[in-house]
Amino acid sequence: QVQLVQSGAEVKKPGSSVKVSCKASGATFSSYTITWVRQAPGQALEWMGDIIPIFGSTKSAQKFQGRVTISADISTSTAYMQLTSLTSEDTAVYYCAQHGVPSATPRGNWFDSWGQGTLVTVSS
Amino acid sequence: QSVLTQPPSASGTPGQRVTISCSGSSSNIGSNTVNWYQQLPGTAPKLLIYNTNQRPSGVPDRFSGSKSGTSASLAIGGLQSEDEADYYCATWDDSLNGWLFGGGTKLTVL
Asked: To the nearest whole angstrom, how far is the Cα of B62 from the nearest Cα of chain A?
Protein backbone atom coordinates (compact mmCIF):
# COMPACT_ATOMS: atom_id res chain seq x y z
CA GLN A 1 0.00 0.00 0.00
CA VAL A 2 1.22 3.49 -0.81
CA GLN A 3 2.37 5.93 1.85
CA LEU A 4 1.47 9.58 1.28
CA VAL A 5 3.50 12.24 3.11
CA GLN A 6 2.30 15.84 2.94
CA SER A 7 4.13 19.11 3.47
CA GLY A 8 4.00 20.97 6.75
CA ALA A 9 1.54 23.43 8.23
CA GLU A 10 1.20 26.86 6.65
CA VAL A 11 0.04 30.27 7.88
CA LYS A 12 -1.09 32.60 5.10
CA LYS A 13 -2.43 36.12 4.77
CA PRO A 14 -5.83 36.75 3.19
CA GLY A 15 -5.50 37.18 -0.56
CA SER A 16 -2.37 35.06 -0.83
CA SER A 17 -1.88 31.53 -2.18
CA VAL A 18 -0.79 28.22 -0.71
CA LYS A 19 0.73 25.15 -2.36
CA VAL A 20 0.56 21.82 -0.55
CA SER A 21 2.58 18.79 -1.65
CA CYS A 22 1.86 15.09 -1.32
CA LYS A 23 4.72 12.63 -1.91
CA ALA A 24 3.93 8.98 -2.59
CA SER A 25 6.17 6.04 -1.85
CA GLY A 26 5.88 2.28 -1.80
CA ALA A 27 3.62 1.77 -4.77
CA THR A 28 2.84 2.85 -8.30
CA PHE A 29 2.06 6.56 -8.45
CA SER A 30 1.43 7.56 -12.02
CA SER A 31 -1.59 5.38 -12.80
CA TYR A 32 -3.63 6.09 -9.67
CA THR A 33 -5.77 9.17 -9.26
CA ILE A 34 -4.77 11.50 -6.43
CA THR A 35 -7.68 13.33 -4.82
CA TRP A 36 -7.59 16.41 -2.59
CA VAL A 37 -10.07 16.74 0.28
CA ARG A 38 -10.30 19.46 2.89
CA GLN A 39 -11.86 19.68 6.34
CA ALA A 40 -12.61 23.02 8.00
CA PRO A 41 -12.54 23.03 11.82
CA GLY A 42 -15.42 20.97 13.17
CA GLN A 43 -16.82 20.45 9.67
CA ALA A 44 -17.29 17.58 7.25
CA LEU A 45 -14.93 16.37 4.56
CA GLU A 46 -15.15 18.25 1.26
CA TRP A 47 -13.83 17.04 -2.11
CA MET A 48 -11.79 19.65 -3.96
CA GLY A 49 -10.52 17.90 -7.08
CA ASP A 50 -8.18 15.27 -8.44
CA ILE A 51 -5.54 14.37 -10.98
CA ILE A 52 -4.50 11.26 -12.88
CA PRO A 53 -0.73 11.79 -12.94
CA ILE A 54 0.01 9.70 -16.03
CA PHE A 55 -2.43 11.74 -18.11
CA GLY A 56 -2.15 15.04 -16.26
CA SER A 57 -5.92 15.28 -16.48
CA THR A 58 -7.67 17.07 -13.65
CA LYS A 59 -11.17 17.63 -12.29
CA SER A 60 -12.24 20.08 -9.64
CA ALA A 61 -15.38 20.85 -7.68
CA GLN A 62 -17.35 23.74 -9.08
CA LYS A 63 -16.88 25.61 -5.81
CA PHE A 64 -13.11 25.78 -6.34
CA GLN A 65 -12.91 26.21 -10.10
CA GLY A 66 -10.72 29.17 -10.99
CA ARG A 67 -8.98 29.08 -7.59
CA VAL A 68 -7.48 25.60 -7.39
CA THR A 69 -4.68 24.11 -9.46
CA ILE A 70 -3.82 20.44 -9.07
CA SER A 71 -0.63 19.11 -10.61
CA ALA A 72 1.72 16.16 -10.37
CA ASP A 73 5.39 15.41 -10.99
CA ILE A 74 5.77 11.76 -11.95
CA SER A 75 9.54 11.90 -11.67
CA THR A 76 9.28 12.57 -7.93
CA SER A 77 5.93 10.83 -7.31
CA THR A 78 4.57 14.06 -5.88
CA ALA A 79 1.19 15.73 -6.31
CA TYR A 80 0.47 19.37 -5.57
CA MET A 81 -2.58 21.44 -4.75
CA GLN A 82 -2.42 25.21 -5.05
CA LEU A 83 -5.26 27.39 -3.79
CA THR A 84 -5.32 31.12 -4.54
CA SER A 85 -7.17 34.18 -3.23
CA LEU A 86 -7.29 32.73 0.27
CA THR A 87 -9.85 33.90 2.82
CA SER A 88 -10.44 32.90 6.43
CA GLU A 89 -12.98 30.37 5.16
CA ASP A 90 -10.10 28.42 3.59
CA THR A 91 -8.66 27.66 7.03
CA ALA A 92 -8.76 23.87 7.10
CA VAL A 93 -6.80 20.65 7.09
CA TYR A 94 -6.05 19.60 3.53
CA TYR A 95 -5.66 15.89 2.74
CA CYS A 96 -4.46 14.03 -0.32
CA ALA A 97 -5.65 10.50 -0.97
CA GLN A 98 -4.86 7.89 -3.61
CA HIS A 99 -7.65 6.00 -5.31
CA GLY A 100 -7.99 2.26 -4.88
CA VAL A 101 -7.68 1.13 -8.48
CA PRO A 102 -6.06 2.72 -11.50
CA SER A 103 -8.89 3.95 -13.66
CA ALA A 104 -9.72 6.88 -15.88
CA THR A 105 -13.24 6.85 -14.54
CA PRO A 106 -14.06 7.69 -10.91
CA ARG A 107 -17.14 5.49 -10.76
CA GLY A 108 -16.61 2.39 -8.68
CA ASN A 109 -13.46 3.76 -7.09
CA TRP A 110 -12.58 4.83 -3.57
CA PHE A 111 -9.99 6.77 -1.55
CA ASP A 112 -7.65 4.03 -0.38
CA SER A 113 -4.61 5.66 1.25
CA TRP A 114 -4.58 9.09 2.86
CA GLY A 115 -1.88 11.58 3.71
CA GLN A 116 -1.50 12.82 7.26
CA GLY A 117 -3.08 16.19 6.45
CA THR A 118 -1.72 19.73 6.20
CA LEU A 119 -3.18 22.51 8.34
CA VAL A 120 -3.54 25.77 6.43
CA THR A 121 -4.43 28.77 8.57
CA VAL A 122 -5.49 32.00 6.87
CA SER A 123 -5.22 34.97 9.17
CA SER A 124 -4.26 38.60 8.97
CA GLN B 1 -25.66 21.31 4.03
CA SER B 2 -24.45 18.14 2.35
CA VAL B 3 -26.19 16.51 -0.62
CA LEU B 4 -25.69 13.21 1.19
CA THR B 5 -27.61 13.24 4.46
CA GLN B 6 -26.34 11.47 7.56
CA PRO B 7 -27.60 11.73 11.14
CA PRO B 8 -25.22 14.04 13.04
CA SER B 9 -24.89 11.62 15.92
CA ALA B 10 -25.40 8.00 16.94
CA SER B 11 -24.68 6.10 20.11
CA GLY B 12 -24.69 2.65 21.64
CA THR B 13 -23.35 0.62 24.51
CA PRO B 14 -20.50 -1.89 24.21
CA GLY B 15 -21.62 -5.02 22.42
CA GLN B 16 -24.63 -3.37 20.77
CA ARG B 17 -25.27 -3.05 17.03
CA VAL B 18 -25.51 0.43 15.56
CA THR B 19 -26.58 1.50 12.08
CA ILE B 20 -25.69 4.78 10.37
CA SER B 21 -27.70 5.89 7.35
CA CYS B 22 -26.70 7.93 4.31
CA SER B 23 -29.44 9.31 2.09
CA GLY B 24 -28.83 10.61 -1.42
CA SER B 25 -30.48 10.69 -4.82
CA SER B 26 -30.62 8.93 -8.17
CA SER B 27 -27.57 10.78 -9.49
CA ASN B 28 -25.30 9.66 -6.67
CA ILE B 29 -26.14 6.71 -4.39
CA GLY B 30 -28.84 5.52 -6.78
CA SER B 31 -26.34 4.90 -9.57
CA ASN B 32 -22.94 4.48 -7.91
CA THR B 33 -21.20 2.46 -5.24
CA VAL B 34 -20.80 3.91 -1.75
CA ASN B 35 -17.70 4.11 0.41
CA TRP B 36 -17.42 4.69 4.14
CA TYR B 37 -14.58 6.32 6.05
CA GLN B 38 -13.76 6.30 9.74
CA GLN B 39 -12.05 9.32 11.27
CA LEU B 40 -10.69 8.92 14.77
CA PRO B 41 -10.20 12.17 16.71
CA GLY B 42 -7.27 14.20 15.40
CA THR B 43 -6.37 11.75 12.63
CA ALA B 44 -6.79 11.40 8.88
CA PRO B 45 -9.80 9.49 7.55
CA LYS B 46 -9.39 5.77 7.00
CA LEU B 47 -11.18 3.61 4.43
CA LEU B 48 -13.69 1.37 6.19
CA ILE B 49 -16.00 0.04 3.43
CA TYR B 50 -15.57 0.30 -0.34
CA ASN B 51 -17.80 -0.64 -3.27
CA THR B 52 -20.82 -0.46 -0.93
CA ASN B 53 -20.13 -3.68 0.99
CA GLN B 54 -16.44 -4.62 0.71
CA ARG B 55 -14.03 -4.48 3.64
CA PRO B 56 -10.36 -3.65 3.14
CA SER B 57 -7.96 -6.12 4.71
CA GLY B 58 -7.60 -5.42 8.41
CA VAL B 59 -11.11 -4.07 8.92
CA PRO B 60 -13.04 -6.36 11.30
CA ASP B 61 -16.12 -8.12 9.97
CA ARG B 62 -18.11 -6.29 12.65
CA PHE B 63 -18.34 -3.52 10.05
CA SER B 64 -20.67 -4.01 7.10
CA GLY B 65 -22.21 -1.87 4.40
CA SER B 66 -25.34 -2.06 2.29
CA LYS B 67 -27.41 -0.03 -0.14
CA SER B 68 -31.03 0.11 -1.19
CA GLY B 69 -32.20 2.54 -3.84
CA THR B 70 -30.89 5.98 -2.99
CA SER B 71 -29.85 5.17 0.59
CA ALA B 72 -26.89 3.37 2.07
CA SER B 73 -26.14 2.09 5.55
CA LEU B 74 -23.14 1.25 7.68
CA ALA B 75 -23.69 -1.30 10.43
CA ILE B 76 -21.33 -1.82 13.34
CA GLY B 77 -21.90 -4.94 15.40
CA GLY B 78 -20.38 -5.78 18.77
CA LEU B 79 -19.68 -2.11 19.46
CA GLN B 80 -16.33 -1.38 21.11
CA SER B 81 -14.98 1.75 22.77
CA GLU B 82 -12.38 2.15 20.02
CA ASP B 83 -15.20 2.54 17.48
CA GLU B 84 -15.89 6.01 18.86
CA ALA B 85 -15.19 8.21 15.83
CA ASP B 86 -16.74 10.22 13.02
CA TYR B 87 -18.08 8.22 10.09
CA TYR B 88 -18.53 9.57 6.56
CA CYS B 89 -20.26 8.12 3.53
CA ALA B 90 -19.03 9.11 0.08
CA THR B 91 -19.96 8.47 -3.53
CA TRP B 92 -19.62 9.86 -7.04
CA ASP B 93 -22.36 12.15 -8.36
CA ASP B 94 -23.06 11.90 -12.10
CA SER B 95 -24.85 15.25 -12.28
CA LEU B 96 -22.29 17.27 -10.35
CA ASN B 97 -19.43 15.31 -11.95
CA GLY B 98 -17.69 15.18 -8.60
CA TRP B 99 -17.31 13.26 -5.36
CA LEU B 100 -19.70 13.85 -2.49
CA PHE B 101 -19.29 13.28 1.24
CA GLY B 102 -22.04 13.03 3.79
CA GLY B 103 -22.10 15.48 6.65
CA GLY B 104 -20.61 12.89 8.98
CA THR B 105 -21.96 11.00 11.98
CA LYS B 106 -20.31 11.19 15.38
CA LEU B 107 -20.55 7.80 17.07
CA THR B 108 -20.42 7.74 20.86
CA VAL B 109 -19.91 4.52 22.79
CA LEU B 110 -21.71 4.97 26.10
From this structure: 20
